[in-house]
Structure formats: C-alpha cells, structure tokens
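Translate structure to sequence.
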C-alpha cells in the first residue's frame, strides 16, 4: 500500500446541497470524470461504477460507498475506487479510498477530496491533478445549476 495522499480542493459558489447533488447524481456530465457515466444508488455499502472513454480506451472503474454523512445536511461521502486502467490486479491492496468533504462557507461550499494509497509522491501528484480537474467540473456544473 502507498503512503502518499493526493488532495484536491475547490471553492464552489453554490449551496452545499447543490454540490452534494452534483457529486451523488447518476448519469454523465462532460465536465466531470472525463464524461464518465456514474451509476450507484448512493446508499451505504452500495456499488458505484464510472464508465466511459479516456484517450481512446474504454474504462469502467468501480468501488463502493463505505461512509455516508448526510443525515441533516450532506457533508461527507467516502468511496472505494479501483481503475482497471492502472494495469494492476483487481485486489483490495490496489484500491484507493476517496474522501469527499463539503464545508459550507460564506460564499458557497468548500470541497476537499483526499485519495489515499498512492505508491509515490509522483503518483499522488498525478492523482491530485486529475482530481483537481474533476472538482473543477463539479464546480462548473454546480454553479450552473445553482
């Protein structure tokens, strides 16, 4: 297992519930996850898949919802994530944990995403850039919807 954590953050000019809805909605947005189609029922323990195409290659990443904090106001969801595009075997040691936390701010919502299990600092930096791009897409969709 890797010891390096990738962190991406975005400040979104939209209410937390709007950002939550964008993060936990099925379907595809061209701006998010390379336009991947997301499928889940968003309940604790439920599977989640992201399917699409990246650089001409089809992919179907998958994981599970392992933590969900949305009782009164949605603020945290934790998912496992595995991508076959890594070329690694589909084994628990090769999964990442994605922790999304939403903090209400004066101007909207601060979203923080941590991804664990990166084997090197360079791998964490690569993941950070990808997740920052994904959160920029979430920001675009949520601000448009707000």
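Result:
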């Amino acid at each position: 297992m890797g010891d390096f954590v990738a962190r991406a953050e975005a400040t979104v000019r939209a209410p937390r519930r709007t950002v939550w809805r964008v993060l936990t909605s099925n379907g595809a947005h061209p701006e998010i996850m390379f336009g991947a189609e997301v499928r889940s029922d968003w309940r604790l323990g439920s599977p989640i898949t992201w399917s699409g195409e990246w650089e001409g290659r089809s992919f179907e990443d998958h994981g599970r919802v392992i933590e969900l904090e949305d009782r009164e106001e949605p603020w945290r969801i934790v998912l496992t994530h595995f991508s076959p595009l890594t070329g690694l075997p589909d084994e628990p040691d090769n999964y990442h944990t994605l922790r999304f936390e939403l903090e209400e701010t004066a101007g909207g919502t601060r979203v923080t995403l941590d991804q664990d299990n990166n084997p090197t600092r360079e791998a964490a930096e690569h993941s950070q850039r990808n997740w920052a791009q994904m959160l920029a897409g979430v920001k675009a969709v949520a601000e448009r919807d707000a």
